[in-house]
Amino acid sequence: MDSILETAKSWLTDFFDPEIKTEIQRLIDKDQDELQDSFYRNLEFGTGGMRGIMGVGTNRINKYTLGKNTQGLSNYLKQVYGDTEIKVVIAYDCRHNSDTLSQTVAEVLSANGIKVYRFSELRTTPELSFAVKHLNCHAGIVLTASHNPPEYNGYKVYWTDGGQIVPPQDKEIIAEINKLSFEDINFSANPDLIEAIDTEVDQAFFKASVENGNFNAQGKDDFKIVFTSIHGTSITAIPDVLKMAGYNNVTVIEEQAKPDGNFPTVKSPNPEEPEALAMAIAKAEEIGADMVVGTDPDSDRLGIAVRNLEGKLELLNGNQTMVLMTKFLLDQYKAKGFKGNEFVATTIVSTPMMERMAKEYGVECKISLTGFKWIGKMIKDFPEQHFIGGGEESFGYMVGEFVRDKDAVTSTLLACEIAAQAKANGSSFYQDLIDAYVQFGFYKEKLISITKKGMSGAEEIKQMLKDFKDNPVETVQGSKLLWIEDYNTSIAKNVQTGEEKAIDIPKSNVLIYETEDGTRIAARPSGTEPKVKFYISTNATLASASEFKSVNSQLDSKIDGILAELNL
User: Fold this and answer.
1) CB 409 within 8 A of CB 299
2) Where in the chain is the domain with CATH 3.30.310?
3) Would you say domain 318-440 falls under CATH 3.30.390.30?
4) 380 in Cβ contact with 163 (< 8 Å)
5) Which of 196, 226, 247, 452 could form a disulfide with 457 if both were Cys (CB 3.0 to 4.6 A apart)?
6) Catalytic hit among 98, 110, 129, 146
7) Measured between alpha carbons, how far is 245 from 409 in angstroms, rounded to an integer?
8) Is 449 considered catalytic here?
9) What's the CATH fold of domain 46-201?
């Protein structure tokens, strides 16, 4: 605690704003627990950048922690690009303080002689990724905390290709940041280097989104969509893109259309949660809509609900949506003729059905760590190959490579194209998914997230993962353990034969068990939230669509059994 107090007192110098010093003194005098949580560590970049609670301290999002990041980034950009006119584009979402924090970031960049394009109002994360290349920038920054609670904000950095920073840039930038003290931040802005942007970039992004996500589906006039932005940024893009693509029967949930960092109508602005789409689903049932689409605050992830076999709206998970989107794109490419250099992509904790399906099409499926920065890196690392599309279980998908991050704008259009065409064919999105299960195998997944907050929570998460590794399962629902994949050591071991294989993926704190029947159990800490996550994947053969209900029930029972065995 002495070191924490010493760090806190270092923020009481004249360099820091008076209100900051007043709050820190209050914590020192009256709130030791909050003081400890605010200063016990420095916020770090995770799978989705830097994300944390807003407030004073080194473990909080504030003008000084973001200023230090930006100063380090500025120093790094000047090292890499020398005397070139360096350009950076900045966007921000609906979060509290996002506009003022983004202005602070712009000012620090300009103080370092860097040209800044800053969106004049909130914009989606995929548009920021697009804007990096569109404006020929050297980097991009977006202020967002995605679907985290209202007290959070965050900071993601994008590189010249429009993708999030990855090795070696990420570690090199972090090294520059760590060299700095807060007093090294240059806050003396040069307003002449800060330029507001808006409509011109919007229109270019909308056009590119339609070009990549529109496949001229039939039946658009007969297809009803209910859309909710859940108080986030997608209201600035998705209605326009859908209209440009020919969808005129779109009902927007007006109560959730106004951007609001309090997210007043939901417990969590997370499209993975059924409650977040409850208002939209109720409206869709009322008007007889075919599909519901909801997006998270920065519009990089989407949740969709479609009519099931009973005609009721059912929320699909990210694996299901990803599988059918990928199959649709593969069918489009197959119809034109594969050139042999195509690939799709997914992550180590997403459904194995992606690999199975790609193999059937004769297309490579590349597998990455969790986080779309790794999928973006694939595109950069393999320029001779053509990226079709890819996604991860956490409701993110990317269509083509014009955006280098998950993109709920274009993915929403793609989902509507699939569903509208299916309806015109006398089928449905849901039925097409079942048909895919018949063709490639029925894979079903379940995610369990356990939240452990604060300094003690971080230790609990660390211990839970250690216990999971030190006490491997022997069987899962009667199926013997076959493989243990340890991404910390980069070794996959066959526990029955002793065979070991190298894992050609960067090291990460992930452990995966796979049994003889293909059941997979993965565990990892969240890179952006105080959570430990367990991913369960099961599978079965589906001989015909008529057996879907019974096999689905069997897989549900199997997952429940696995959770009971693991005490989750």
Assistant:
1) yes
2) 442-565
3) no
4) yes
5) 452
6) 146
7) 12
8) no
9) Alpha-D-Glucose-1,6-Bisphosphate; Chain A, domain 3 (3.40.120)
